[in-house]
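Query form — protein Golgi SNAP receptor complex member 1

QUESTION: What is the three-dimensional structure of this chain?
INPUT:
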Amino acid sequence: DLRKQARQLENELDLKLVSFSKLCTSYSGARDGRRDRYSSDTTPLLNGSSQDRMFETMAVEIEQLLGKLTGINDKMAEYTNSAGVPSLNAALMHTLQRHRDILQDYTHEFHKTKANFLAIRERENLLGSVRKDIESYKSGSGVNNRRTELFLKEHEHLRNSDRLIEETISIAMATKENMTSQRGMLKSIQSKMNTLANRFPAVNSLIQRINLRKRRDSLILGGVIGVCTILLLLYAFH
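ANSWER: The structure tokens for Golgi SNAP receptor complex member 1 are given below.
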């Protein structure tokens, strides 16, 4: 009678676990389908609380069946220990161990499926919250984002202008250094020429005479050209 009850509970558990696993699979598939179809992030990932209620109900039912099957296994263990026929002890222990293994497998499968379902639901709740925050940020701060982009562009333009000004200042400083160096060289040449002129006064006087003669020749040539021009004008008007 206990084995019959155990088998009946095991069959019910097997059907419940299959349905429970399908519920988890359909929940994950619906999540992926909604994510593929709706790329605008405006549709919630969870379709209400119907699947959550179904999950809670099935989990409670499976836990109750596991509790009943555990009780049946305990009763079978008591019966095996109190059996009066020693020759049947080995067969009874084998049967009891098989039912215990089945109970352990069902318990492990239930906890694994439940953990997977809870992990998927927690991840979807987190993703849904994040997507809602992103959507609210996009819808509520569009103008601020536009202003921020404009400010960033203006900041980039200012940085480019500062860089060009720094390059221009660097070129001006280099030019100033070159002109200072050239001025020093010219001063050095002028000082050397003055030294030579002071050291050789005859050369200086000769240069002055040459300059005076050139000036005199220029004056004479200018006077001749002027007289010739006057004579040509008088001849022309005469």
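ADDITIONAL NOTE: Residues 36-48 have pLDDT under 50 and may be disordered.
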